[in-house]
Amino acid sequence: MNSSELLRSTSSLPEHETRRLLVAATGRHWTELILGVELEADDVEQFETLVRRRLDGEPLQYIEGTAAFGPIEVIVDPRVLIPRPETEQLFELACDAIDDPKVIVDLCTGSGNLAIALKHRFPTAIVYATDLSPDAVDVARENARRNRLDVTVLEGDLFEPLPDHVAGRVDLIVSNPPYIAEHEREGLPEDVREHEPVAALIAGPVGDEVLARIAESAPEWLGPDGVVVCEISEFLGAEVAAHFAGLGGEIRRDLAGKERFVIASRRIRL
Ligand SMILES: C[S@@+](CC[C@H](N)C(=O)[O-])C[C@H]1O[C@@H](n2cnc3c(N)ncnc32)[C@H](O)[C@@H]1O
Question: For each of the chain's 270 residues, which pLDDT tens digit applies?
């Protein structure tokens, strides 16, 4: 079958999704497909399988196996959360908060998106990333390798796996930690509940539990001018500001005007 005819006849999904799925199914370049090439029966069958998976609600990025994040691309699968646009804003906020970080730590790294993008932005920095989940650690290490960037990914609870000599020397701590409350679980979108590692999103009964622990331990790890930037729940700005009050924490809004980030430092420079 001809690729352009196939695209025209598949109207059950938005056009841009159909195109991306045909690229994923055939491994061919988009321009070639739009101009029209004869496809093998196997490719057509594979495309139809991917369309069915998408119609069943599976996120496009899991089907494609990759997600763009700032200046990099990471592989994603159900072992890790798909990086969100708000987290790209967290990345930009972190980059603007500091000039020349020597040591960077990304807590709750998941796919490694933040840690790897920061190493891309600050190539001379030493970058550590930690995650409790051995699966996430595997994915983050694979992503660092694929991007040819040197990031040390460690398995464990928040700061616990970091080497002792890093204490008091970290210039930038970033984190997109779990911040959903237990009672919000059922209200999450169906595609998230059905396909993403929901346990990685839930922090506890209130939602600020992991952020509270980050705020408590950060002073021990930060250097004299170190900065912490974290993503937070839009419903917990006041609670998170209180946790980071000792570090001069300020709440920042996302592009939609929601309170989505906390930035804190012994010396706020923004
Ligand atoms: C919301 S996901 C964020 C993933 C990634 N940073 C991103 O921006 O897409 C949270 C991650 O935190 C990890 N995690 C949860 N509790 C943790 C803890 N106490 N210490 C380290 N990692 C933790 C989960 O395994 C999961 O990968």
Answer: 777 777 777 778 888 899 899 999 998 888 888 887 888 889 889 999 999 999 999 999 999 999 999 999 999 999 999 999 999 999 999 999 999 999 999 999 999 999 999 999 999 999 999 999 999 999 999 999 999 999 999 999 999 999 999 999 999 999 999 999 999 998 999 889 989 988 889 999 999 999 999 999 999 999 999 999 999 999 999 999 999 999 999 999 999 999 999 999 976 544
**Separation of first and last alpha carbons in the chain:** 57
**What atom in ligand 1 is closest to the CA of residue 106?**
6
In terms of pTM, does the model score above 0.70?
yes
Ligand 1 midpoint to CA 84 (Å): 13
- Which residue ranges make up each domain of the chain? 3-56, 77-265
Give the Å distance between the CA of 152 and the centre of ligand 1: 16
Is 108 close to ligand 1, i.e. is its CB under 6 Å away? yes
Angle at 148 between CA 164 and CA 120, to 5 degrees: 70
Is 176 a pocket residue for ligand 1 (Cβ < 6 Å)? yes
Nearest to 121 by CA among 155, 97, 145: 97
How far is ligand 1, taken at its centre, from the CA of residue 137, in Å? 10
Judge contact between 191 and 81, C-beta under 8 A. Answer: no
Architecture of domain 77-265: 3-Layer(aba) Sandwich (3.40)
Which of 127, 131, 230 most suits a substitution to test ligand 1, by most atoms within 8 Å of the C-beta?
A: 131
Tokens at 176, concatenated? 């997109």
